[in-house]
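Hi Y.,

Following your request, here is the sequence exactly as I used it, all 94 residues.
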Amino acid sequence: MVTRELTLRNPDGLHIHPSRMLVELVKSHRCSCRMEFKGRDVRMDCVVSLVSQDIRCGDPFLLICDGDDEMEALESITEAVESGLGDRIDVLSM
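Below is the corresponding structure, written out as C-alpha cells. Let me know if you'd prefer a different format.
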C-alpha cells in the first residue's frame, strides 16, 4: 500500500468532467485506489462517489493505492490531479 497527500487544483472543484477522467484512470490500473477526504473513505471507481464529496479547489485529500501496480497508479493519478484532470488550472493561483 502506498499513499500520498494531494491538493485539488481545479478552480471549479471535482465536478463531473474531472471526476470522469479520474475514474477512467483509476480503472486502467490493476490495484485498488481510494481517497480519504475529511475523515471519509471514498471510492475512486465511481463518478457519483467522487462528485458527492464536494471537493473544492485547495482541498487536500489522501490518495491510497494498494495492489499489483500501486506505485504506477500513485504516480499517474498524482500527475493527472496536479495537471488539472483535463481542466485548465491557473498555476499562479495555488
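The two ends are 29 Å apart (CA to CA).

Thanks again,
Q.
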